[in-house]
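Chapter review: from sequence to fold.
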Amino acid sequence: MPALELRGVSKRFGPIRALDGVSLSVEAESMVAIIGPNGAGKSTLFALVSGELHPSDGAILLAGRDLHRLAPERRARLGLGRTFQSARGFAGLTVRENVELALVRRGRREEEVREALAEVRLLELGERRAGALAQGERKRLELAMVLAQRPKLLLLDEPTAGMGAEERVAIMELIVGAIGRRGLTMVFTEHDMETVFAHARRIVVLDRGAVVADGSPRAVRADERVQEIYLGSARA
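The token string follows.
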């Protein structure tokens, strides 16, 4: 059974079709990148899967469960974890308190908080205010908050946004390590093509709301249409 499945999913905003009949099946414990130029529909796709938006047509299934009209918190309880391009958290709370807050619904346990912070190498910064963290540390905190909720599927929106080369490598090592230890499925968007081709086992390319390529990194890199789409910006 696929970890995530989209069946003919479309999203219209008035006359604008942000997604156009997207069908996609993601196998469990896979690492899939969704890429495409600005306006391709990546953010809309993530918002539909996480429940911030609802599709105009089609169906979205999480481990075979139809997510139709389920609120984001219900999807989270079913095993969906989501991070954002701009890391979210409560700046006035400590690092530890942010993770504790993420566990409120399922009952906070101190060992789970410590485990999540240790997994992203933030345990020693547990009493620091989140607002005082650097960009890479804020991204790691958001990841800890998601991992603490024991997700089965991770939706990571630009996990390396705003980072330098060394920070990008470091956070992807943490993410890939967590996925391997926990047996998670990851679907991620990313503008840094070096990161995409280094970590994705499968790449799906969107353009103008439609899937234009779907395959291994080697196949996608060689795809003439993908090269045409990225020509002049970030040629694949």
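Two observations follow directly from the output. Strands lie at 4-13, 16-26, 31-35, 57-62, 65-66, 80-83, 153-157, 185-189, 202-207, 210-215. The longest strand covers residues 16-26.
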